[in-house]
Fold Aldehyde dehydrogenase.
Amino acid sequence: MSTPIKVHNPATGELLKEVKVHSNEEIKQALEKGHLAFKKWSKVNAHTRSKLLKDWSRIIQKHKEEIAKVMTLENGKPLKESIGEVDYATSYIDWYAEEATRIYGRTIPASSESKRIIVSRQPIGLVAAITPWNFPAAMMTRKAAPALAAGCTFIIKPAEETPLTTMRLIKLAHEVGIPQDAIQYVNGNGPEVGSLFTDSEHVRKITFTGSTPVGKTLIRNSADSIKHVTMELGGHAPLIVAEDADLDVAVTQTILSKFRNAGQTCVCANRVLVNENIMDAFTEKLTKAVKALTVGNGLDSATDIGPIINEKGYRKIVGQVKDAIDKGAEVLAGNEYDANEEQGYYFVHPTILKNVDERMTIMEEETFGPVLPIVSFKEITEAVDIANNTPYGLAAYFFTNDYKVGTYLYEHLNFGIIGWNDGAPSGAHVPFGGMKESGIGREGGSEGIDPYLETKYLSIGNY
Ligand code: ADP
């Protein structure tokens, strides 16, 4: 028997639960079951699948407070954010419950009178998902909901840090009547389960949210059996504040983008580029607002910023801040820590760094923490060059009320998600995903169900 996964509360270090790790044999059996279940689930009519998804959403909403509490306990995010995440998670189920009944085909005019051509869409098969710890509910539903809606069966390995929310959601799916084998979870170590998924002949698609290096491994390992892949990988979002920007809007939205989930999201603003003429006015307002944020246990209603998920994440953040200060960055707020290695909790106070430049690691690497580096620019073209100077291409934000500057930025920024005067552009109804090394494919919107469907076309001759 493998050692169970120990799930800790990152705000206190307290052990919450020990979760059973599935053996390789059990995982293989689960894959086999998921494959067999596909034969039945794919034949359930779309209206029934839609209704079951709606029931799943409803029962999750009924248990919203309880699920949110589990999420805050295992992830650390403030309870108000966990409640928001449950809503966000069910919005994907609601959206794809609707999309289930709109998987249309088409007819194509044939090149001969004696032929007819029909194009239809069919589910691709068993989908295996691997998810991260930062959004334990939503990262799963934005994959599971379109998969089930399309008629695919689904198996997930949640992050070792936060398996409890996912397990609870899947239990609720079974309670409303989604077949046991149509949606399953397995727990285990990332690389091992990842290899079992990619090696399995039963899995037709891998969908992953996590770091770019792991995404590359999964793509490589999926090549042998040509599995479909959807990859939501790392980001390094620039946020540009143009000279004419409404500074109050820019400050509020920057805080929304940067400090949600203690800065531990892949779309968090990671580099703030500010026109030099408004630098002082912007940083003054921003610093005041950031200093008003409260750091603490997510269960405390006053908390805006919870703990960092683990020591590895904490060390990375502290290292980036130190590197920036050593190379000349000025601290406007934060650079304060409340960490206890023995107990196992790590808090980083919201930090603003000024005079940041491209020699600093923070300008290259994703931070995944509440640290906001500010870079100054003169011309908007220079801001675009700095913004695009990254292998990542997930989200970018800009603030301007000048439509010419705005359209220039929209057209020249190489990112999949753009927020114009908007620091929180995500939603179930829009296509979320990145360019370059930030990923392949989109989740959400009408685009989000396509990756779970194959196109099949029929040519009828001799008509
Ligand atoms: P982070 O460093 O933020 O945890 P990862 O990309 O390492 O990001 O983890 C995201 C998810 O990927 C987790 O569920 C983790 O268990 C899983 N994982 C980690 N390494 C691998 C791997 N080699 N193959 C498949 N999954 C992995």
Summary: The mean pLDDT is 98. Residues 130-132, 157, 159-160, 190-191, 194, 210-211, 214, 217-218 surround adenosine-5'-diphosphate (CB under 6 Å). DSSP finds 13 helices and 22 strands in the chain. The radius of gyration is 23 Å.
